[in-house]
Amino acid sequence: MGTKVTWLGHSGFVIETGAHTILIDPFLTGNPVAPMTADDISKADFILLSHGHGDHVGDTVALALEFGATVLGNPEVSNWIQAQGVEKVATPNTGGTAKLDFGTVKMTLAFHSSSMPDGSYGGSPNGLLIKLNGGLTIYHAGDTALFSDMQLIGEAGIDVAMVPIGDYFTMGPGDSIRAINWLKPGFVLPMHYNTFPVMVQDAASWANRVTSETDAQSVVMDPGNSHEFAK
Ligand code: NI
Ligand code: MN
């Protein structure tokens, strides 16, 4: 049975395994490219957060309260979420792995910054290495610059990678090509681009570079679109 991945625009995704619905960085309210509102989300068992910035925490609190979802983030992020009234949280820190009903999430390095929407300390930013039980290994890079330890993350055997290509706040298209060659994913999805004027990129020319310069297969979606992976 396959895994359905829907892009919410920016760094937001919905992963549907059949058994569980997992949201990553669900930034809908205030997101100019969001294909739907938070009210249109119909299920969330888990919400995974890469770091504390508002364009990643987004609608997490409202969605977690509505669906009783478990929220995973670094300790500072998760404790902040819990202080907003969310009961179930997982609090792994960089290098650590959390075991959840759908599989495991390892908090990888990310080179960026992190503060909560109210300006309080957000801990270290992370990438998320997600291993679905009997299914895909997914790497969501979060917001990050290129860094050479991506080679080590790639040793996990990544089926699907989500990498930022927007530049300005994160690495841009050129660095993402180098990242893809270090991560060696089967499929790669671009994210964190076109949301705001400073991060406009040409995803089609990026995809051409992925084809000619890496062994990965690009999957470029419009916000709201889904891709079904066989595994
Ligand atoms: Ni950020
Ligand atoms: Mn961001």
CATH class: Alpha Beta
- Give the strand line-up of the largest sheet: 6-5-4-3-2-1-14
Number of helices: 6
What about the largest sheet? 7 strands, mixed
Total E-strand runs: 14
Estimate the helix proportion, in percent: 10-25%
Radius of gyration: 16 Å
Per the principal axes of the C-alpha atoms, what is the gross shape? globular
Work out the count of structural domains.
1
Poorly predicted runs are none
What binds here, in terms of ligands, is: nickel (II) ion, manganese (II) ion
Strand content: 25-35%
Q: Enter the CATH topology name.
A: Metallo-beta-lactamase, Chain A
Name of the CATH homologous superfamily:
Ribonuclease Z/Hydroxyacylglutathione hydrolase-like
Structural class based on helices, strands and sheet pairing: alpha/beta
The ordered string of helix (H) and strand (E) elements is EEEEHHEHEEEEEHEHEHEE
User: Mean pLDDT, rounded to whole units?
Assistant: 98
User: CA-to-CA gap between the ends?
Assistant: 7 Å
CATH architecture: 4-Layer Sandwich
